[in-house]
Every structure is written in structure tokens, then in C-alpha cells.
Design goal:
Helices cover 16% and strands 15% of the residues. The chain is an alpha+beta fold and 200 residues long.
């Protein structure tokens, strides 16, 4: 009797070409992170992966504290093509505030600056004026339901506050939703913030 080479027994779910759900989830997360980083590098913008392009190290331009403002450039939530377009030098591609859509880039600043809100220019309210107010938006943790987050440390950024969708679409047509309640991705206070709400 001749042995059949195809009859070797493999544990269920481990046959050639199969991967368990955990392996697939890990591979998907790695590929998503790589795509975001490559896209940001090519566009001259940062990503929110690891809080503005770093991986929980609190180094790099995102963590320069206090944040340095250049007057006359775009503020929080305004569209941008590169860091040079933004008042604080941070053009963020694919943030949690836009549902991790890498095609949407917005200006913002790090509101979790080392030393916290005591830094002069770190609070979002520092930039209020002309009838526009800015507030903090927090990236939800995985334990809080945000299964798309890949960074070890959640981001805390500034966003335009809003009362209605009209407030947002007039500020930036790419972020037309006034997110009034926390979602699986975004945690906010009692005020609304402009962004993209994929759960709407």
C-alpha cells in the first residue's frame, strides 16, 4: 500500500492556506498601519498612528512643547496638503476624527503636549477668535470600542466646535458632520466637534 502524501493530518483551522481569525486581524492591522504611514510620507503629512507619526515615544515634531504657532496659516480642521499649510505645522492624514480615511487631511495640534494644558499654546481655546471656538477631541481606546486604533497611545487633538452640520461643512467640506456624541472612534465633551461620523 502506498502512502498518500496529501492525507497528512493538520490541526483543524491550520490546513495549508488557512489562517485563524486572530492572525488575519493582526495582518490586517499591520497592512493598514503600513498603508497610512506610506501615504502620509508621500503626501508630506503626518498620521495619527502613534500620536502624529511616532510610536508612543513622545519624540519628534508632534511632541515639541509648547506648540509653536505661525500666524496666517490654517487652523484646526481646515484642509491641508502638507505640514507647511498649517499654523502649528501638523497636517494630519487619516485621523480618528475623519474615520481613519487617509484621503482626508486636516490641520491640528497636539493637545496632549508634555506638561499638559498648562503650556501656554497647548490648550485648544488658545486659538479661539472671530466667532470660532476649538475644543479637544480624544481618540478612543481599544477597550473603549475603537478597534481601528493601531497606536499604543491615543491622540488628543484640537477640533472646531459645532452646533450643527452646517457649522462644519462651511469650515471644511471634507468634514461635514457635527459629531455631538462620543462614537467608537471619538470621545468628546459636552460640545460637538467637526469631523466625519461613519456611524451616522
Amino acid at each position: 500500500m502506498t502512502a498518500n502524501p496529501t492525507s497528512s493530518r493538520l490541526p483543524l483551522g491550520r490546513r495549508a492556506g488557512r489562517r485563524g481569525p486572530l492572525a488575519v486581524a493582526r495582518l490586517t492591522a499591520v497592512l493598514l498601519t503600513a498603508a497610512l504611514l506610506i501615504g502620509a510620507a508621500l503626501s508630506g503629512c503626518e498620521t495619527v498612528t502613534g500620536s502624529g507619526g511616532t510610536t508612543n515615544t513622545r519624540t519628534g515634531a508632534w511632541w515639541v512643547c509648547p506648540p509653536v504657532k505661525t500666524d496666517g496659516l490654517a487652523l484646526h480642521g481646515k484642509p491641508c496638503d502638507s505640514n507647511a499649510d498649517c499654523a502649528y505645522g501638523h497636517c494630519i492624514a487619516g485621523s480618528f476624527l475623519v474615520g481613519y480615511d487617509a484621503s482626508i487631511k486636516i490641520c491640528t495640534k497636539n493637545n496632549a503636549c508634555v506638561g499638559g494644558e498648562s503650556n501656554t499654546t497647548a490648550p485648544c481655546s488658545y486659538d479661539n477668535g472671530g466667532g470660532v471656538t476649538f475644543v479637544s477631541a480624544f481618540e478612543k481606546s481599544k477597550s473603549g470600542g475603537n478597534l481601528q486604533r493601531t497606536s499604543a497611545e491615543p491622540a488628543k487633538i484640537c477640533a472646531k466646535s459645532c452646533a450643527s452640520d452646517a457649522d462644519c461643512s462651511s469650515w471644511n467640506a471634507q468634514t461635514p458632520d457635527c459629531i455631538k456624541n462620543s462614537t467608537d472612534l471619538v470621545s468628546i465633551g459636552t460640545q460637538g466637534v467637526c469631523g466625519v461620523n461613519p456611524f451616522k
